[in-house]
From TrEMBL:
PROSITE patterns for the chain: ABC_TRANSPORTER_1, ABC_TRANSPORTER_2
Signal peptide segment: none
Domain of life: Bacteria
Stated family: Belongs to the ABC transporter superfamily.
Chain ranges of the ABC transporter domain: 2-223
GO MF annotations, alphabetized: ATP binding
Name of the protein in its database record: ATP-binding cassette domain-containing protein
Keywords linked to the UniProt accession: ATP-binding, Nucleotide-binding, Transport
InterPro entries: AAA+_ATPase, ABC_transporter-like_ATP-bd, ABC_transporter-like_CS, P-loop_NTPase
Length: 290
């Protein structure tokens, strides 16, 4: 559905996005994560034809260019501040874009906007404006929805409502590209992760594959960890000593058991360490920065 091939984005003469290539298929929910200034917003704006870029962006077999946005007719987006007319009510703002009344009413209802949807939007709070922006992005059942930090300013109920809508739309085939710093929130919905750092995509993986990384380390406790470390060292097996245990790589666990057995050192515990999502992201970024 969406294909990026070797996309480079420039602001002035500075290259911000470096050689980005990836694709998004119908129904996928892609989490775009990365540190501040990594290039997430710039990448999203590039897909929307709002930046100077080289390479190819193809949406539904049509090319997106800076001057031709026709390919984007089935794309909804919320980037930075929602584009809202302050002297119109929320409902009137939505009516400007909506093709079906039922679609509009259902989004307003799931997002819990009924009590203020007929008030002028200039009086809306940050979260109310954000919800209106999300509602605009979701109108008319787009094929792709791009959301930059959608949960900004949303309360718990609204966050749950947005999550529900995202899943519901994805089940019906809408694809999502969502950036967020709230990883725990993204984790609840995303099916794929794209990790960007200094404008470069360093991870582009299905969420199941990505989660496997968390099971690549094992915790080992023996009756004599000092002696165990000497044995591992002598056999060139990688380990890292912690307070009262060692961490080792999962591919070495059988060799480690054999060596310890041979040297008559009893194993007290050997179990996979479940790293959390945040920790994995931090580790990958640390490694990338050398
Ligand atoms: N208008 C601009 N002029 C010059 N440089 C810019 C401009 N907008 C963004 N940049 C630079 O582009 C880089 C990427 O910025 P971008 O806003 O895309 O990052 P981001 O990943 O969305 O960050 P954040 O998580 O903080 O929102 C940064 O180094 C930023 O300084």
């Amino acid at each position: 559905m969406l294909n990026l091939e070797n996309v480079n984005t420039y602001i002035g003469k500075t290259k911000i996005v470096h050689d980005a290539s990836f694709s998004i298929r119908a129904g996928e929910i892609v989490g775009l994560i990365g540190p501040n200034g990594a290039g997430k917003t710039t990448l999203m704006k590039t897909i929307l034809g709002l930046m100077k870029f080289t390479g190819a962006i193809i949406m539904d077999e049509k090319s997106v260019t800076e001057n031709n946005h026709q390919a984007l007719s089935s794309v909804g987006a919320l980037i930075e501040h929602p584009a809202i007319y302050p002297f119109l009510t929320g409902h009137q703002n939505l009516e400007l874009y909506a093709r079906e009344k039922e679609d509009l009413d259902s989004i307003v209802s799931v997002l819990g906007m009924n009590s203020y949807i007929n008030n002028k939007s200039k009086g809306y709070s940050l979260g109310m404006k954000q919800k209106l922006g999300i509602a605009i992005a979701l109108l008319n059942h787009p094929k792709l929805v791009i959301l930059d930090e959608p949960m900004n300013g949303l309360d718990i109920e609204a966050t749950i409502g947005v999550r529900k809508l995202i899943k519901q739309y994805a089940d019906q085939g809408t694809a999502f590209l969502i950036s967020s710093h709230v990883l725990s929130e993204l984790q609840k919905v995303m099916t794929k992760v794209i990790l960007i750092s200094s404008g470069k995509i360093i991870v582009n993986q299905e969420i199941e594959k990505f989660n496997e990384i968390s099971r690549r380390k094992y915790k080992v406790i023996t009756e004599n960890n000092e002696a165990a470390m000497r044995i591992l060292q002598n056999n060139s097996i990688a380990y890292s000593p912690q307070d009262d245990y060692l961490t080792v790589n999962s591919q070495d666990i059988f060799q480690i058991q054999d060596e310890l057995f041979e040297h008559r050192i009893h194993l007290e515990e050997m179990a996979p360490i479940e790293a959390n999502f945040e920790q994995i992201v931090v580790n990958i970024l640390d490694k990338e920065r050398g």
